[in-house]
Write a structure and sequence with these properties.
The complex is a heterotrimer of chains A (about 180), B (about 425) and C (about 260). Chain A has helices at about 15-40, 50, 85-95, and strands at about 55-60, 70-75, 75-80, 115-120, 145, 150-155, 160, 175-180, 180-185. Chain A is of the alpha+beta class and about 180 residues long. Classes of the chains: A alpha+beta (about 180), B mainly alpha (about 425), C mainly alpha (about 260). At the B-C interface, helix 4, helix 5, helix 10 and helix 13 of B face helix 1 and helix 7 of C.
C-alpha cells in the first residue's frame, strides 16, 4: 500500500506526529461515543405525547367544606382539600412553630383562595400515599395527614411535623381559571 | 484462559484485578499482542464490522423495546408513537431497521471472503460451522423482527414463512398451529415473536463468542491461504489491526448512516406502513432483500417430483421448494467436508476462482429473481440458477478436488509480500 | 485486483439492496414533481404546509382520518399555541365518563388526536359504497412514489377510455393501480379559498396537500436530515484521521 519509503533515522520525530494522530483519533472516538449515548439515554425521558397530557383541569364546585378529593395528575394522586375555618386557623397558628421545612400557610395556598389546599399526595419520605383524605382516615397528631408506611405526620397545611419525611407535601404548579376551576400543571 | 504465565502490570489496580481474574492478561494476549498475518486486505475488516453491527442492533433494540407494545391491536400504533413522540425515537428505529440490512451486508461480504480465500478449510471447519449457525440465527431474528411493526408485509410475510412448515408431511399442520398459537397469525404469534426476537440476539452473541474463541485457537487465515511460519509473517493485533479495522468500520458506517438519515425507507417496503389486515393480501409479497436469493430457490421448485410413469408423487412442489431452500443453507454447513482440495485460497486456484465468482453472480441473479413476480422468464432463470447453486457444491467442488492442479505456493507470507512490493 | 473485487461487491450489494425495494412496481409511470423537501438539504415550505392542511381540513377530512396526528403537532406548521388551540376547539370529542358516569361532548384540546370522520371502519365503509377511505397519516410512506403519487392521483382523473366499463361508484384515474378508484375526483378549481394569494387551482391544491401529507408521514424529516449531515461530516473527518493514523502506523511494515 504505502510505496513511500520511511527511512529508519526518521524514527526520532515519529512519536510527536503519531501521538498527535492518536490523540485526535481518541478525541473523536470519545465525542462520537458521547453523541451516540445521548439519544439512547434521552429516549427514556417523557415522550412528546406524555408531556402534552401533563395538565389537568379540576372543577372544585362539588367539594363541600371539610371534604377532600383526590385527582390523578401525571400518574400521581393530587389532594384537593376544602379546608374548614378551624383547619385554616390551626395552620396559620403553627406558622411560628418549630418546623422541619419552614413554610407559612400563606406560601402553600393561593391568595384569596386560602380554603383550598392543593398538594401532591405523595409522602416525601419514600413515596407512599398518606391517609387523611376521608373522614374515617387517621389524620395524625396534627389534624392533617398521616403516612402509614413509616409514620410521618403532616399538619392541616400539609407540612411535615413528625416522623421521617424530610420536607412538606409538595404543592404542584396550579392556577385558578375562575372561582371554582383550577388547572394543575 | 489460565493465569499460568501472567506478566505483572504497572498499575496497582489493574494488577490487583488481574492477579485474581486475568481479564487484562486475556485482552492483552487476544487483542493486544495477538499475532495476526500481516497481509490482510480490507475484506478482513468485515468480522469486526459485523460485530459492531450486532452490538448496534442490540443497543438500539433494547431502547425500542422500552416503547414498543407487542399486541396485535397496539403494535403498529406504538411504532408510530416511537417515530413521532418518543425522544429520538425515529433515529433509533431507522438505525435499527437499516441496521438489519447493513448487518447482513457485512455478514454476506464476510461469508464471501471466507469462501473465496478458503477460510473454512482444515483446521477452521468448526469456526466456519459456528459462522453458519450465526447466519441462521440472524435470519430467524431478522424475520421475527420484521413482523413486529405489524404492517401488511409483517403480517403476510409471517403468514407465508410459517406456512412453509405445513409442507412437512404428516405433522406439518400441527407444527404451524403450534408456531401460531392459534388458527392464523395473530396476537399470540406476535407476542412470541417479540419474546424470541429479544432473546435470539443474545444467543447470537454467545455463538459469536465461540466463533471468536475458535478463531483465536487456529489463528486467522489470510489472502494467501498459507499459515504464518514465524514472527516475520505476523503483526501484533494492536495497533495494526485495531486502527485498520476502525478505519474500515468508519467507511462502512458512512454508508449506513447515509441510508438511515437520508433514505431510511428505501430498503423497506411501502406496504409495511399499512396496518396489518388479515382480509387483504398485498399485490406482491416480497421478503427483505437479504432473503431474496433463498426465496427465489423456494419458488424455483414449481414441479412435483414423482416416480416416473406413475402418478405417485414423492415430493410435492411445495415440499420440494422448502427442502431446496433449507438445503441451500445446509450445503454451507457441509462445505468444509465437500472441498478437499489441498490449496486454500482462490488466489492459487484459478478454476475454483471462476466457479466461485460465478456462484456469487448466480446468487445475485437469484436475489433479483426473488424480488420479481414468479412468472414468465423469471421462473426458468431462477431454476437454472438454483441448479448451478447446487451443482457448485455437489458437482463442481468434488470435480475440482480431483482435477484442479495444485499450484506452487509462496514459501512464506513475508516473502510473498516482499516480492510483491518490489514489483510494485 | 483485490480492491476492484471489493468495490464491485460493495456496489453490487448496495445496488441490489436498493434495487430490490422498487422491484415490485406498477406499470403506471408516475411523473416526478419538484418538491422543496427533495434531497439531502430539502426542507418543508411552511406556506405550502398550512395551505395543504387547509385543503385537508376542508376537503379530505370529510372522509379520511389522520389518526396518528395530534393537533399539537400543528405547531410545526408555523401555527402559534393559541392558533393550535383554536383549531383543535373547532371539533368536539366524546369524553368521560364524568362523575355521574355519563359520557359528554367537549371541545378538542391540542393533546387530542385529529378528529376521525367516522366512528369506526364499518361506518366508514357503509358511508362510502363499501370502500374504506384509507387513513392519511402515513399515506406518502405507504405508497410507491410518495408525494409524487398523491399528486398524480389527485390530478389524474379522466374520462374512461373507449371499451372500459366502470361499475357503480367507480371512477377512472390514470395513476391508480388498476385505474378504477372508488373516490370521486375530490378537488376542483376555486373550492378552497387561500388567504395568501396563492392561485386557487386544482393543481395547486393537489401540490399543497401532497406537501402536507408528506410532512404528516415524516414530521421528523428536517431534523433527521440536519442531524444526518452533522453525523456524516463527523464520520468523514474521523475516517480521514483514522486513515492518516493507519498509514503512519503501517508505513514501516511492508518494506522490511
Amino acid at each position: 500500500m504505502s510505496t513511500k519509503p520511511t527511512p529508519a533515522n526518521d524514527q526520532a520525530d515519529e512519536p510527536t506526529r503519531r501521538d498527535f494522530l492518536y490523540l485526535t483519533a481518541a478525541a473523536f472516538g470519545v465525542v462520537g461515543a458521547g453523541s451516540v449515548a445521548w439519544p439512547l439515554i434521552d429516549q427514556m425521558n417523557p415522550a412528546a405525547d406524555t408531556l402534552a397530557l401533563s395538565t389537568t383541569e379540576v372543577d372544585l364546585s362539588p367539594i363541600e367544606e371539610g371534604q377532600a378529593i383526590t385527582v390523578m395528575w401525571r400518574g400521581k394522586p393530587v389532594f384537593i382539600r376544602h379546608r374548614t375555618a378551624k383547619e385554616i386557623e390551626e395552620a396559620k397558628a403553627d406558622d411560628s412553630a418549630d418546623l422541619r421545612d419552614p413554610q407559612t400557610d400563606a406560601e402553600r395556598v393561593k391568595e384569596g383562595h386560602e380554603k383550598w389546599l392543593v398538594m401532591v399526595g405523595i409522602c416525601t419520605h419514600l413515596g407512599c400515599v398518606p391517609l387523611g383524605q376521608k373522614d374515617t382516615d387517621v389524620k395524625g397528631e396534627y389534624d392533617g395527614w398521616f403516612c402509614p408506611c413509616h409514620g410521618s405526620h403532616y399538619d392541616s397545611s400539609g407540612r411535615i411535623r413528625k416522623g421521617p419525611a424530610p420536607t412538606n407535601l409538595a404543592v404542584p404548579e396550579y392556577t385558578f381559571l375562575n372561582e371554582t376551576t383550577i388547572k394543575i400543571g | 484462559m489460565g493465569s499460568g504465565n501472567r506478566e505483572k502490570f504497572d498499575n496497582p489496580v489493574v494488577e490487583w484485578v488481574d492477579s485474581r481474574l486475568p481479564v487484562f492478561t486475556l485482552m492483552q494476549k487476544e487483542y493486544g499482542v495477538f499475532p495476526t498475518p500481516k497481509n490482510f486486505n480490507y475484506f478482513w475488516n468485515f468480522g469486526a464490522i459485523a460485530m459492531v453491527m450486532l452490538v448496534t442492533m442490540i443497543v438500539t433494540g433494547i431502547a425500542l423495546a422500552m416503547h414498543y407494545v407487542p399486541h396485535a391491536a397496539m403494535a403498529f400504533d406504538s411504532v408510530e408513537r416511537i417515530m413521532r413522540d418518543v425522544n429520538h425515537g425515529w433515529l433509533l428505529r431507522y438505525l435499527h431497521a437499516n441496521g438489519a440490512s447493513f448487518f447482513f451486508i457485512a455478514v454476506y461480504i464476510h461469508i464471501f471472503r471466507g469462501m473465496y480465500y478458503g477460510s473454512y478449510k482444515n483446521p477452521r471447519e468448526l469456526l466456519w460451522i459456528l459462522g453458519v449457525v450465526i447466519f441462521l440465527l440472524m435470519m430467524a431474528t431478522a424475520f421475527m423482527g420484521y413482523v413486529l411493526p405489524w404492517g401488511q408485509m409483517s403480517f403476510w410475510g409471517a403468514t407465508v414463512i410459517t406456512n412453509l412448515f405445513s409442507a412437512i408431511p404428516l405433522v406439518g399442520d400441527s407444527i404451524v398451529t403450534l408456531l401460531w398459537g392459534g388458527f392464523s397469525v395473530d396476537n399470540p404469534t406476535l407476542n412470541r415473536f417479540f419474546a424470541l426476537h429479544y432473546l435470539l440476539p443474545f444467543v447470537i452473541f454467545a455463538v459469536v463468542f465461540l466463533h471468536v474463541w475458535a478463531l483465536h485457537v487456529t489463528g486467522s487465515n489470510n489472502p494467501l491461504g498459507i499459515e504464518p511460519k514465524g514472527k516475520q509473517d505476523t503483526l501484533p493485533f494492536h495497533p495494526y489491526y485495531t486502527i485498520k479495522d476502525t478505519f474500515g468500520l468508519l467507511v462502512f458506517l458512512l454508508l449506513y448512516v447515509g441510508y438511515a438519515f437520508f433514505a431510511p425507507n428505501d430498503l423497506g417496503h411501502p406496504d409495511n406502513y399499512i396496518p396489518a389486515d388479515p382480509l387483504v393480501t398485498p399485490a406482491h409479497i416480497v421478503p427483505e432483500w437479504y432473503f431474496l436469493p433463498f426465496y427465489a430457490i423456494l419458488r424455483a421448485i414449481t414441479f412435483d417430483i414423482a416416480i416416473p410413469f406413475t402418478d405417485i408423487v414423492l415430493i410435492s412442489a411445495k415440499l420440494g421448494g422448502v427442502l431446496a431452500m433449507f438445503g441451500s443453507i445446509a450445503l454451507l454447513f457441509a462445505l468444509p467436508f465437500l472441498d478437499k482440495h489441498p490449496v486454500r485460497s482462490a488466489v492459487f486456484r484459478p478454476w475454483f476462482k471462476i466457479a466461485f465468482l460465478a456462484l456469487a453472480v448466480v446468487t445475485f441473479i437469484l436475489g433479483v429473481c426473488g424480488g420479481k413476480p414468479a412468472e414468465g422468464l423469471w421462473v426458468p432463470l431462477a431454476q437454472i440458477c438454483t441448479l448451478y447453486y447446487y451443482a457448485f457444491f455437489l458437482v463442481i467442488i468434488p470435480f475440482l478436488n480431483k482435477k484442479e492442479p495444485v499450484a506452487k505456493l509462496p514459501p512464506s507470507i513475508h516473502e510473498a509480500v516482499l516480492s510483491k512490493n518490489k514489483q510494485g | 485486483m483485490k480492491y476492484s473485487i471489493f468495490i464491485f461487491l460493495m456496489i453490487l450489494t448496495i445496488g441490489f439492496a436498493s434495487g430490490s425495494a422498487v422491484a415490485a412496481e406498477s406499470s403506471h409511470k408516475i411523473p416526478h414533481q419538484h418538491w422543496s423537501f427533495d434531497g439531502v438539504f430539502g426542507t418543508y415550505d411552511r406556506g405550502a404546509l398550512q395551505r395543504g392542511f387547509q385543503v385537508y381540513t376542508q376537503v379530505c377530512a370529510a372522509c379520511h382520518s389522520m389518526k396518528h396526528l395530534s393537533y399539537r403537532n400543528l405547531s410545526a406548521l408555523g401555527y402559534s399555541e393559541a392558533e393550535v388551540k383554536a383549531i383543535a376547539a373547532q371539533n368536539t370529542v366524546t369524553d368521560g365518563p364524568d362523575d355521574e358516569g355519563e359520557m359528554f361532548e367537549r371541545p378538542m384540546k391540542p393533546s387530542d388526536k385529529f378528529k376521525n370522520p367516522y366512528e369506526n371502519d364499518k361506518q366508514a365503509r357503509y358511508a362510502n359504497n363499501g370502500a374504506l377511505p384509507p387513513d392519511l397519516s402515513l399515506i406518502t410512506k405507504a405508497r410507491h412514489g410518495g408525494a409524487d403519487y398523491i399528486y398524480a392521483l389527485l390530478t389524474g382523473y379522466a374520462e374512461a377510455p373507449e371499451g372500459e366499463t366502470l361499475g357503480a361508484g367507480q371512477h377512472w384515474n390514470k395513476y391508480m393501480p388498476g385505474n378504477k378508484i372508488a373516490m370521486a375526483a375530490p378537488l376542483s378549481d376555486d373550492m378552497v379559498g387561500y388567504e395568501d394569494g396563492t392561485p386557487a387551482t386544482l393543481d395547486q391544491y393537489a401540490r399543497d396537500v401532497s406537501h402536507f401529507l408528506t410532512w404528516a408521514a415524516e414530521p421528523e424529516m428536517e431534523v433527521r436530515k440536519r442531524t444526518g449531515i452533522k453525523v456524516f461530516i463527523f464520520l468523514l473527518i474521523f475516517a480521514g484521521i483514522m486513515y492518516a493514523t493507519k498509514r503512519k502506523i503501517w508505513a514501516g511494515v511492508k518494506k522490511s
